[in-house]
Write a structure and sequence with these properties.
Layout: E1 3-11, H1 13-58, E2 60-61, E3 75-86, E4 88-90, E5 95-97, E6 101-121, E7 127-140, E8 166-169, E9 171-175, E10 178-179, H2 182-185, E11 192-193, H3 198-202, H4 206-209, E12 212-215, E13 218-221, E14 233-240, E15 243-252, E16 255-257, E17 259-260, E18 266-267, E19 269-272, H5 277-318, H6 322-353, H7 357-385
Parallel strand pairs: 2-3
Antiparallel strand pairs: 1-7, 3-9, 3-15, 4-5, 6-7, 6-8, 6-14, 9-10, 11-14, 12-13, 13-14, 15-16, 15-19, 17-18
């Protein structure tokens, strides 16, 4: 059952100005850091793209049923049936599963605090903040400290996890005639639920068996699974079943290791099912593209936040009249985003200029347009502000 507590605080105009001036330091740190991030990201993306191109051109198709010594250190693509000589075992619970990989997920029932703040500017420049603290009981993968809750009374957490969440690989995993390294098995993520049964309960160590019960396919540690209490723990399991796997990696004897490309990035893929080498390289290229754009967005937003921190004192100064403060805030925020976009494009253009000059020139033109737009926007704001 959820409950909440609301608190209202106020901050004076002078205090807000002092805080915004301190925020300038944050802006001066964020802007150069975002530039470094953007530059590094473009270099990383290019290296990865070149490595994938080299790998796709060098990969050799080999059969899984025999090891050809002439393929040593070559980048190979193998598809076959993966099996394990020894089942995956959870040593703490004594659970054995016919799987390539066994994962334990432990959760503890805890109070959790969430906050929601609403700010209102007042005439004279002060700011009123209304914060609502909400509390609800939820299953969590880690114990939650209630000592720092706004209202710890009635929301005290207790208990601890038994062994925590952990994964275990089966020993002796093979793919036809090849041995699959443990580091490759650890990357398998096509797991399915493995509901425990009464026979699994009987195999638990004595100390756990005395406290556990089977409930909804999990080991439950608590009095009433249908009505959990603070401190109750439940343990569920997932497995990666034996089956068809596809691997792209360097062949080393009868096993595999990452293939080092001339561009610099190592290549090693493992996928569930019969997947062609071309499809695996396409997936990797798409993942590189998604990561590149995600990092560009992070760099752009960090830079925009940095510029907003630099100009925040202006909106705080104007907030003596709330409407004027909002207007200044919107204008400076817009200018910050335009400047961040222009500089981000400039950094990306410079990073690509030596490799793809035409693309670099196009990005430079867009960056220049952004600078011009930001200047015109700032000029229009000054004109609008004149009486």
């Amino acid at each position: 059952m959820a409950d909440s507590y609301t608190e209202t605080t106020s901050q004076g105009w002078l205090s807000r100005i002092a805080g915004s001036i301190k925020g300038i330091v944050v802006g001066l740190i964020l802007i150069p850091l975002s530039i470094v991030l953007l530059w590094w990201n473009e270099g990383r993306a290019l290296t990865t793209a070149k490595s994938l191109e080299q790998g796709a051109a060098a990969v050799v198709e080999v059969a899984a049923d025999q090891v050809d010594p002439t393929n040593r250190q070559k980048l190979v693509h193998v598809t076959g049936e993966a099996v394990a000589k020894v089942p995956a075992i959870d040593p703490h619970y004594g659970l054995r599963a016919p799987a390539l990989r066994l994962s334990r997920v432990e959760e503890i029932y805890q109070w959790e605090e969430t906050t929601q703040a609403e700010k209102k500017q007042k005439l004279g420049g002060s700011e009123e903040t209304t914060t609502t603290y909400s509390y609800a009981k939820q299953w969590n993968s880690q114990p939650v400290s209630s000592a720092h809750f706004k209202v710890p009374e009635g929301h005290a957490n207790a208990g601890a996890l038994i062994a925590g969440s952990q994964s275990f690989n089966a020993e002796g995993v093979t793919l036809g005639a090849f041995q699959v390294p443990d580091s490759f098995v650890s990357r398998l993520d096509h797991a399915v639920s493995y509901p425990v049964a009464e026979e699994d309960l009987a195999a638990l160590p004595a100390d756990l068996k005395a406290k556990a019960r089977v409930h909804a396919g999990t080991f439950y540690f608590g009095a009433k699974p249908e009505a959990p209490e603070i401190g109750d723990v439940r343990s569920s399991f997932k497995i990666v079943k034996p089956g068809t796997l596809s691997i792209v990696a360097a062949q080393m004897g009868d096993t595999f290791e990452p293939f080092r490309t001339k561009a610099g990035d190592p290549i090693s893929f493992i996928e569930d099912g019969a997947v062609s080498a071309a499809a695996m390289f396409r997936k990797a290229a798409k993942a590189n593209e998604v990561l590149t754009w995600a990092m560009r967005l992070v760099g752009f937003l960090a830079m925009a936040c940095g510029f907003m921190a630099l100009v925040r004192p202006l909106s705080v100064l104007g907030s003596v009249v709330p409407f004027l403060g909002d207007l200044v805030g919107i204008g400076t925020g817009l200018i910050s985003f335009v400047l961040a976009g222009a500089i981000s494009l400039l950094v990306i253009a410079m990073a690509w200029f030596a490799v793809r000059p035409l693309l670099g020139i196009g990005l430079l033109a867009l960056a220049l347009g952004g600078f011009v737009g930001a200047r015109q926007l700032a000029a229009s704001k000054k004109t609008a502000a004149r009486p």
